[in-house]
Amino acid sequence: RLALVAALGGAVTSGWLYLRHQRERQRQSRRLRQLRALRLSQADFELRDTAGRARRKEDFLGSWVLLYFGFTHCPDVCPEELHKLSRALSLLEKEPALPPLQPLFVTVDPQRDDAAALARYLRDFHPRLLGLTGTAEQVSEAAAAFGVYVSAGPPDADGDYVVDHSVLTFLLDPEGIFRDCYGRSRTAEEMARSVREHMEGY
Predict the structure, then answer these.
(1) What pLDDT does residue 37 have?
(2) What residues contact 176, with CB distance under 8 A and at least 6 apart?
(3) What is the 3 state secondary structure string of 121-136?
(4) What does the alpha-carbon distance between residue 172 and residue 193 come to, in Å, rounded to a whole number?
(5) 69, 147, 170, 173: which sits with the fewest CB atoms below 10 Å from its CB?
(6) What per-residue confidence (pLDDT) applies to 41?
(7) Read out DSSP for 84-127?
(8) Contact residues for 104 (Cβ-Cβ < 8 A; gap 6+)
(9) Quick one: pLDDT at residue 24?
């Protein structure tokens, strides 16, 4: 009798675990369909890296991507965000079992941020951070595709100006699908933890 009860209990538990697993798979499948349908998942760009090579989103398929829009003359916000991004990358690199992750910096100030300016600026951050620039039209289209607000302020007496822009870092999965975004309130540790969870659940 005890053996029968134990067997029945095991069967019920196994069945419950199976149903829970199936429900979770269905939930993830629905979530993925929703993410694919988002405008952000369709976003693309046509820019050039600091070596002058043409780059599109499809060039980074197969890797996770952290994408940040900013500019090299930014007085404080962009350096803070890029240092945070660099710290998150360093934390994730301590776990070699995790899949590849490519960080990208897209300028919102192509008038001043040519390839040489980007290369100089990005030396102060993570060594794998890749800078992207282009024509004013290309940069504007890339920002609009990701829903990034960009507005250049009036120049001062020296011709200097500040570019107001959305402060967000976007996470794209290996299929180029938008998975998450991180604002100024998220710490490097929180960003790294979130990226890791997305990778593990992929």
Answers:
(1) 46
(2) 41, 57, 58, 60, 61, 65
(3) HHCCCCCCCEEEECCH
(4) 15
(5) 147
(6) 78
(7) HHHHHHHHHHT-TTSPPEEEEEEES-TTT--HHHHHHHHTTS-T
(8) 60, 65, 66, 67, 68, 129, 130, 131, 132
(9) 47
Measured CA to CA, the distance from residue 41 to residue 60 in angstroms comes to 14
Dihedral in degrees, nearest 10, Cα atoms 27, 30, 36, 38: -100
Residue-wise pLDDT for 60-118, tens only, equals: 999 999 999 999 999 999 999 999 999 999 999 999 999 999 999 999 999 999 999 99
How does pLDDT run across 117-127, given as a tens digit for each residue?
A: 999 999 999 99
Q: What angle do CA 76, 80, 84 make, to 5 degrees?
A: 175
Q: What fold is seen in the domain 45-201?
A: Glutaredoxin (3.40.30)
Query: 74 among the known binding-site residues?
Result: yes
Locate tokens 């197969």: which residue?
A: 62
Residue 165 known to bind ligand? yes
